[in-house]
Amino acid sequence: MSDATPAAGQAAAQQPDYDALTRDIAEVPAVEVIVTVAVNLMSAAAVKLGLTEEGDAHKDLDEARKLIHALGGLLDASATEISSFHASPLRDGLKSLQLAFREASVVKDQPGQGPGEKYTGPVYG
């Protein structure tokens, strides 16, 4: 019976403290949450475009398209909610990803039909 108690104690210690996590997220400003999500989408898209040190190991243009499109939608929807201080570099990053996608694609999308271009307008490159 004494063997079960330490294991139960370890299991309880490994459980996240959801009350503490809830308090932590409650203290984070919405702009910071939006920017963090945008940066995560940008990073994931870069990996799926093969722009990391591993290169083509994780390249998946279909997945990259989805991530870039979601990033474009997020930036479009939050444009009035975040300052240009935050929005400008995110828009620049989005455009860079769109251009990288266009360059990596074997079959090129028509201008205005690429990922996220529904929100940003045509990207030429």
What does this protein structure show overall?
The chain is mainly alpha-helical and 125 residues long. Helix content is 66%, strand content 0%. The protein is built from six helices and no strands. The protein has helices at 4-14, 18-26, 30-48, 61-78, 84-104, 117-120. Helix 4 packs antiparallel against helix 5 (84-104). The termini are far apart. The mean pLDDT is 89.
In short:
With 125 residues, this protein is mainly alpha-helical. It contains six helices and no strands.
List keywords for this structure.
125 residues, mainly alpha
Uncertain stretches of 5 or more adjacent residues: none
> Strand-residue fraction?
under 5%
Arithmetic mean of pLDDT = 89
List SSEs in N-to-C order: HHHHHH
Shape: flat
Largest sheet: none
The computed structural class is: mainly alpha
